[in-house]
């Protein structure tokens, strides 16, 4: 396959269907060795399905993919030896302690008992879980569970790591902690493919970003490149009265570097304002005040995934329902599948 020499992950024309649903629709992707790719997309865009194809958990209907030069279908065992996966839904076994979870992960990767024990201790230390090591995981906080999950994916020292929405559902503090942990990881040269619904997260962690929608790549670039397509920062204002929405839009027009979007239900107006920073806010207050428009809320924000989406597709990110939570047995099966034939 082209690009195998320098790319740790290559996907070409991947199609995956589930009956009527086309989850992946001819997706191409390349991740250079030692780099971090952020795969950004809304609910149901195909992120998890792609991760499952690349980690050999499911087969593509069309197209091909390789990890470290090994085909994910025909050389699945070789791929599994080289990868780690922390899935969207935690594979942590609640009834086992932190230590036992890691030891079990090691055994699934066919590490001998001593090596599995040593790795478990090392990882508990590294992820600051030593104090909680002998407590059942069911008492862990959300952040601790994510760290344990991440630790389990590293047991066999993978050169390519897949993290599917590693921080979704975490509070801001735990998210920051986990970002730090992930940054340390990639400093060692691990190739990382990370999925996320947050532009901010991809911005913080990824060297490059691929935006997908309906199983197709709709944009590629660095975070600043994607943000520049939105038109820099976004001014968000909520007017008190629906009747003022249109007047507010006209009043603020001189500040805009792109199209304003209105939401007649929430009376909210969003306007890309470039890189004026807080000056845009002061100007907006003045312009709205001149017109005597009452404002409930006014803020400058960095663009979100929704803003990028709007700029790229002309419509808001569709909100398909999230995949249902997996049961314990299904989780075990997946972890076992990821570990089986490893080594
Ligand atoms: N096992 C399955 N059976 C049927 N449909 C599926 C299955 N897995 C995924 N899909 C469908 O494929 C599409 C892509 O789903 P996928 O889980 O890959 O999206 P995602 O980007 O990971 O979404 P989320 O952000 O909610 O995790 C969705 O329409 C989903 O309903
Ligand atoms: Mg998913």
Short summary of the structure?
The chain is of the alpha/beta class. Helices cover 36% and strands 26% of the residues.
| Total helical segments | 12
In what range is the share of β-strand residues?
Answer: 25-35%
Bound compounds, please?
adenosine-5'-triphosphate, magnesium ion
- On the 0-100 scale, what is the average pLDDT? 88
Q: How many strands in all? A: 14
Low-confidence stretches: 320-326
CATH superfamily grouping of the largest domain = P-loop containing nucleotide triphosphate hydrolases
As laid out across the biggest beta sheet, the strand order is 6-7-8-3-9-10
As a percent range, the share of helical residues equals 25-40%
Tell me about this structure.
This protein has helices at 47-54, 76-82, 98-108, 113-126, 142-153, 172-187, 199-205, 223-230, 245-252, 278-290, 305-313, 328-339; strands at 7-18, 21-32, 36-40, 62-67, 70-71, 83-86, 160-164, 191-196, 208-213, 216-221, 233-239, 261-263, 268-274, 295-301. By secondary structure, it is α/β, with parallel strands linked by helices. The chain has 2 domains: 7-226 and 322-339, Rossmann fold, CATH 3.40.50.300; 233-301, Alpha-Beta Plaits (2-Layer Sandwich), CATH 3.30.70. Strands 6-7-8-3-9-10 form a 6-stranded mixed β-sheet, sandwiched between helices. The chain has a 4-stranded antiparallel β-sheet with strand order 2-1-4-5, with helices on one face. Strand 4 (62-67) and strand 5 (70-71) form a beta hairpin. The longest helix is centred in the middle third of the chain and has 16 residues, at 172-187. It is globular, with a radius of gyration of 23 Å. Bound molecules: adenosine-5'-triphosphate and magnesium ion.
């Amino acid at each position: 396959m082209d690009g195998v020499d320098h790319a740790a992950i290559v996907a070409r024309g991947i199609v995956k269907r589930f009956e009527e649903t086309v989850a992946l629709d001819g997706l191409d992707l390349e991740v250079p060795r030692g780099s971090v790719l952020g795969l950004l997309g809304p609910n149901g865009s195909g992120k998890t399905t792609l991760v499952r194809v690349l980690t050999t958990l499911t087969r593509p209907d069309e197209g091909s993919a390789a990890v470290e030069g090994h085909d994910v279908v025909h050389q699945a065992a070789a791929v599994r030896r080289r990868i780690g996966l922390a899935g969207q839904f935690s594979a942590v076994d609640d009834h086992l302690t932190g230590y036992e979870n890691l030891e079990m992960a090691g055994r699934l990767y066919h590490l001998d008992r001593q090596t599995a024990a040593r790795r478990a201790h090392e990882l508990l230390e590294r992820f600051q879980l030593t104090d909680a090591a002998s407590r059942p995981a069911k008492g862990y906080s959300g952040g601790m569970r994510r760290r344990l999950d991440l630790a389990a994916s590293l047991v066999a020292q993978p050169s390519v790591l897949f993290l599917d929405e590693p921080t979704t559902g975490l509070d801001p503090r735990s998210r920051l902690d986990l970002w730090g942990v992930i940054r340390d990881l990639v400093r060692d040269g691990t190739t990382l493919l990370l999925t996320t619904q947050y532009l901010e997260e991809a911005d913080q962690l990824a060297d490059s970003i691929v935006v997908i929608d309906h199983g197709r790549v709709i944009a590629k670039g660095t975070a600043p490149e994607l943000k520049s397509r939105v038109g820099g920062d976004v001014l968000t204002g909520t007017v008190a009265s629906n009747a003022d929405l249109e007047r507010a839009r006209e009043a603020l027009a001189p500040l805009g570097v792109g199209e304003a979007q209105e939401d007649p239900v929430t009376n909210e107006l969003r306007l890309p304002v470039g890189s004026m920073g807080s000056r845009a806010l002061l100007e907006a207050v003045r312009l709205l005040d001149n017109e005597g428009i009452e404002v409930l809320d006014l803020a400058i924000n960095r663009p979100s995934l929704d803003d990028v989406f709007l700029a790229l597709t002309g419509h808001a990110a569709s909100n398909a329902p999230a995949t249902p939570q997996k049961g314990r047995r299904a989780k075990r099966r997946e972890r076992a599948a990821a570990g089986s034939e490893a080594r």
